[in-house]
Amino acid sequence: MNKELEIEFVTLLEQHQNILHKICKLYTADMDSHNDLFQEMVIQLWRAYPSFKGDAKFSTWAYRVALNTAISLFRTKKRKIEMVPWDNHILNIRCEDYDTQQEEQLRFLYTAVRQLTDIEKALVYMYLEDKDYVEIAETLGISEVNARVKMNRIKTKLKNILNKKGTAEWMG
Amino acid sequence: MDGLDLLKQHWNTDENFPKVDKESLRTMLHKSSSSLVKWIFIISVIELFVGIALGFLINIEEINEKPLLHLINNIYTVVFYVIVGYFIFLFFRNYKTIKNTKNTKSLLQTILNTREQVNKYIKFNIYCILFSMFIVCVEKIYSYIEERHGWGEILFYSVTFTIASTLVYLLMVRIVKYYYKILYRRLIKKLDVNYEELTRLEIEA
Fold it and tell me: Is residue B93 part of a domain?
């Protein structure tokens, strides 16, 4: 692949890299896994880039390939060394800006989301990104009705996970 | 406020991610992928070649000099390599259709189909080994009859050969099953679970 294409791709990716980071945050629990998944997503995006026609938005195209990487291609490495959890890393940086109780709620929420299946996490990601059900269904290859049904089930499942953790009262 | 809504509120404002610069991104582009598909490809290619090597090993040994058995062996060799060639063609054709830009369900389906093709190839090889062992058994028994051994002796050798062959075959099947159990757990399970979840959703609706 030529240099120009590479420069074009890297420029676009640098601007939109938070898409990848956000997906990594839902699918991984520590920084090293986050970085591994991020790297694999970059490789997969680069491989698929020649097929990017430009008729779709780069961000839309990128999140689909990134989700596919997390669901179908990424192989979690077994690690012997204890890793630094994502939330600790981020929340430690931000502890002065944040209300402690809200931080704690968010930490529980992220932990709960990570207990969902790969497919459920993909739905949560697209829900958080305000994608409509037509797009969600199209991305996953299921019907729109099923995407809605699944999303409702996920909300119930999350509520149950949080209830078990005794945080229901926090979440209203 | 609902849990997901609280998360959404935070999600939209969350900018606190590591910033990867262009140079690091460029370096990442040229790193080797460690994707499941890559591993499935490597393992599948090894298995395809082990199958071919096995075919050679079985053929190297002159299993018979009897015209009929010789003819069967020749037909078997030709059929074996034609089918192996067809399997290899199918594998590479299916592998080329794996595109990470497909929708998730189609992508999972294509990967699993490609792998399934290799599983069929392994089963085919096991049946071929079984067939070769059967031919060897027939040839040995035939030789004993020709050498005019006593019927008791012929019966004894026939039973011994059949039992030994069956045991070897069963052991081989057990090893292959165990190998798949390990391989399945390491590589395919994640894909299977995700694909099943998407399929189940369609059935339940």
Answer: yes
Helix axes A31-48, B22-29, angle to 10 degrees: 70
- For the stretch A108-119, pLDDT in tens is 889 999 999 999
A131 and A52 in a common domain: no
- Tell me if chain B has a CB within 8 Å of the CB of A77: yes
Q: Is A75 an 8 Å CB contact of chain B? A: yes
> 3-class SS at B31?
coil
The domain total for chain B is 1
Q: Is A79 left (phi over 0), alpha (psi -120 to 50) or beta?
A: beta
Q: Which residues, other chains included, contact A122 with Cβ-Cβ below 8 Å and sequence gap of 6+?
A: A67, A70, A71, A139, A140, B104
* Chain B contact set for A165 (CB, 8 A): none
Chain A interface, mutation test: which of B33, B98, B102, B192, most A Cβ atoms within 10 Å?
Answer: B33
Which A residues in the span 107-126 are in contact with B, Cβ-Cβ below 8 Å? Answer: 109-110, 112-113, 117-119, 122, 124
Q: At which of A53, A84, A115 does a domain end?
A: A84
Is ipTM strictly over 0.90? no
Query: Domains in chain A: how many in total?
Result: 2
Residue B105's Cβ-count burial label (10 Å; 0-12, 13-18, 19+) is buried
Under an 8 A CB cutoff, do B102 and A68 touch? yes
pLDDT digits (tens, 9 = 90+) for B2-15: 678 888 888 888 87
**Do B98 and B191 touch, CB atoms closer than 8 A?**
no
Enumerate the residues of chain A whose CB falls inside 8 A of the CB of residue B202: 142-143, 146
> Are residues A2 and A80 both part of a single domain?
yes
